[in-house]
Specification:
Length: 767
């Protein structure tokens, strides 16, 4: 990760137009102007790149600059009076509960930096909210990072927010567990093309499909106005207008939440959890960047500037920011457990990494100290005809070709048999409830009485409610149970002592009984760590990268980071700790993909990897999700949030594979800014007559992509699945000819050139 910090010329960028009758103040950036009135509301948001300036603040909904939240009373307080100290660049906001907030407002060249400097007295306030910031944009909304986008040629403008600290997260503080429910919302991106039926209305919430367990069945609505939600930093009102929110919380306070990741489904009914207090993690100092700019240049001009100027995470691959569309590349996904030619295949394709998916789950086990195959490399899981290799040996072989080695892992899940789970479970585990033994028990007792039964009847976890994971911990013993008696003495039911290979032992009255927070089963079985242990697990992945050469992770089960009740903050903290530890160990970078995406991982994550096959993109029918809506849903989420969609593990090369298929895949990938994991089985690849031509075609497209050779108008054409394309390299590495085909014949051609130079590499429009 590159944490290079470029200081913005904030003071020079400030344009204070002055107090207008003492009632309002105007502030400008290069592309954006806001007006704040004497009550502390944003009453105008204008695009200053066009004349006349286009207004994006709806007349009927002014935007409170900062709202206060009392979670005990479940009440929001909005500002009622404001004053501005030009000398210090500070707004003073007064609220009806008696609280007074001081907010620093500093216009930088391309954004406004807003910082909560103080709040006195608090008067019950335990969380704050930036916004709600209302817009009249009705096109796209990025719910993960908080952005309202109008991508039309007529408007071409976006307004967004980015958090500048870990404890400021996307969404609103009234959301239990600080992670938005996973569900659909009704919103059409274009009412003319996709009008809503009479049975639906803008902003309507609709549950996911399926039984709440099968993650493929979640994606159940192919119509474009069914928009699946992966956050709540941006939402839409009843008129389809996008509004934005970020929040920060005092995490030092004890609290209890009642949360489900997927509400309104029997398989995912909410659970109560006593959320661990985190001393020193407070909302004072909460800071956001508020920005507006032309949409076509927003990512690489404004968002990248914010990230670099504010020292936010800036991971790079092959010299490019992972958010730069010119860095987007497929990776190889191994199949068949034979590795003789895998590195050479990957090098010929020009792909940056090998995901060793056929090695199964990598389970975090701190017992190995990051040496997956032992300090002497005695394990050799990578099969070669000439002799098998350890992770370190294979990673070093790949690194000689500039290729990374990756593994898929279960994020923070503490699997059975790992050092922190069993047979001696850690004392730093996350628990839902803490009770006490009502009386002594022996090692053989199955009648375990507790002091009170509240919430012990809830099946563990927040999703799936897996009965085999309903566990309490007493001392160093794990005990499985199902149910608790209704009357005193309150006894756990259907008890199994010494669970997961722990030792059944005697325990004394008043000893703590911890109902543990857990994951789900289906191979993901695990306990959830508390925050201190989670920090260590994050560091463990950095140690694996250092000692075993695994510098690419596919974090399956990222949603487990939410299970401690700290939601997106927990995800941010996990990845920050991993990158900090990597830096300490001298690991130059770690790249990772994941099975979900959140505001907490957006900065760090390079690819979203979910499933594969026809659920994502069907190469034969040329449609996004021919069997479910998964491809359409994930495409719309990622595109709206300036993030690459992935086709997942797909497009395996086999004896029937053709060059034409992969030219199509590459065209769609470039058009939408997509990536994928090319499934490679050595035996199958060697059976393909067109193997060499396929490799060359993919490499040609990737070279042109890395050179940012596809202009915006061409990328729009590439998205049309009805078109056939072939790309010809002209031999100098900087020029290509793109041919559109009809019935196998060239019908039009486009000359393409590299636009990557030292001067423009980090500033050119690539979306």
């Amino acid at each position: 990760m590159n944490l290079k910090k470029i200081l913005p010329a904030c003071a020079a960028a400030m344009s204070l137009c002055g107090c207008m009758g003492g009632d309002s103040w105007n502030f400008d950036t290069d592309y954006f102007c806001i007006e704040i009135n004497g009550k502390g509301y944003i009453t105008s948001m204008r695009n200053t790149t066009v004349v006349p300036n286009r207004e994006f603040s709806p007349v009927d909904k002014p935007s409170p600059l900062l709202s206060l939240y009392d979670s005990g009373k479940k009440v929001y307080y909005l500002p009622q009076d404001a004053s501005f100290d030009e000398t210090n660049g500070c707004l003073t906001l007064e609220y009806p509960n008696g609280s007074v907030a001081k907010v620093g407002l500093k216009p930088c060249n391309k954004y406004f930096r807003l910082t909560l400097q103080s709040l006195e007295p608090r008067n019950g306030i335990d969380a704050i909210q930036w916004g709600t910031y209302y817009t009249n944009i009705t096109n796209l909304f990025g719910e993960i990072i908080g952005v309202a986008r109008d991508t039309s040629d007529a408007v071409n403008y976006s307004i967004g927010i980015l958090a500048l600290d870990d404890n400021t997260i996307g969404g609103t503080p009234d959301i239990e567990g600080d992670a938005a429910p996973f569900q659909y919302i009704i919103h059409t991106p274009d009412a003319g093309r996709y009008p809503l039926p009479d049975s639906l209305h803008e902003g309507q919430v609709v549950t996911l499909g399926g039984n709440g367990i099968s993650d493929v069945a979640f994606y159940a609505n192919k119509e474009p106005y069914y928009r699946i939600m992966y956050g709540n930093a941006a939402l839409v009102d009843g008129k389809g207008r996008v509004f934005l929110n970020y929040q920060s919380r005092d995490r030092s306070k004890e609290r209890e939440v009642y949360y489900s990741l997927i509400p309104n489904m029997a398989a995912n009914t909410p659970n109560h959890i006593e959320v661990e207090p985190l001393p020193g993690v407070d909302f004072i100092g909460s800071s956001v960047a508020l920005w507006g700019s032309p949409d076509s240049t927003a990512l690489m001009d404004v968002i990248q500037d914010i990230v670099l100027s504010e020292g936010l995470p800036y991971p790079m691959v092959n010299g490019k920011w992972v958010k730069d569309p010119a860095s987007f590349s497929p990776d190889v996904m191994t199949d068949g457990q034979q590795y003789d030619s895998i590195i050479s295949y990957t090098a010929r394709l020009g792909f940056p990494a090998i995901h060793a998916y056929d090695q199964g789950f990598l389970r975090a086990d701190r017992r190995n100290e990051g040496y997956l195959d032992g300090k002497d490399q005695t394990r050799k899981p990578f099969k070669f005809t000439s002799g098998n290799k350890s992770h370190r040996e294979f990673a070093d072989m790949a690194a000689e070709q500039g290729i990374m080695l990756g593994r898929v892992c279960i994020t923070n899940a503490l699997a059975p048999g790992t050092s922190d789970a069993s047979p001696l479970p850690s004392d730093s585990l996350c628990f839902q409830q803490k009770k006490k033994l009502a009386k002594d028990i022996s090692a053989d007792d199955t009648l375990i009485a507790v002091d009170e039964p509240k919430y012990l009847d809830e099946i563990a976890s927040w999703e799936g409610h897996c009965r085999n994971l309903n566990i309490v911990k007493i001392g160093k013993e794990l005990i499985h149970y199902l149910g608790v008696s209704d009357t005193a003495p309150y006894t756990l039911q259907n008890v199994t002592r010494g669970y997961w290979g722990t030792k059944a032992m005697a325990h004394k009255a008043d000893e703590a009984v911890y109902k543990l927070q857990v994951t789900v089963n289906y191979g993901y079985d695990g306990l959830i760590p508390n925050m201190a242990l989670q920090d260590k697990i994050a560091g463990h992945y950095a140690e694996i990268a250092c000692h075993s050469g695994v510098t690419l992770y596919d974090f399956d089960g990222q949603e487990f980071l939410f299970n401690n009740g700290h939601g997106y903050y927990s995800a941010k903290r996990f990845f920050r700790k991993m990158f900090e530890r990597a830096k300490e160990l001298g690991v130059p970078y770690i790249r990772f993909s994941g099975a979900t995406l959140s505001e907490g991982s957006w900065h760090y994550q390079s690819v979203w990897n979910v499933g594969g096959g026809r659920n994502l993109y069907d190469i034969d029918t040329r449609e996004w999700g021919s069997t479910t809506s998964q491809g359409k849903d994930l495409r719309d989420v990622t595109y709206s949030n300036f993030f690459p969609v992935s086709f997942g593990g797909n497009f395996a090369i086999k004896d029937t594979s053709t060059v034409e298929q992969y030219e199509h895949v590459q065209a769609i990938s470039v058009g939408y800014g997509a990536t994928y994991f090319l499934r490679i089985n050595q035996k199958d690849v060697e059976s393909c007559p067109q193997k060499d031509r396929i490799f060359q075609a993919i490499r040609t497209w990737q070279d042109a992509r890395a050179a940012n050779a596809f202009p915006r108008y061409v990328r729009k054409m590439l998205r049309n699945p009805e078109y056939d394309w072939t790309l010809e390299a002209l031999g100098d590495g900087n020029h290509w000819t793109l041919h559109r085909l009809e019935d196998g014949q060239v019908c039009e051609s486009f000359n393409l050139s590299s636009t990557i130079t030292q001067k423009t590499a980090n500033s050119i429009d690539k979306r």
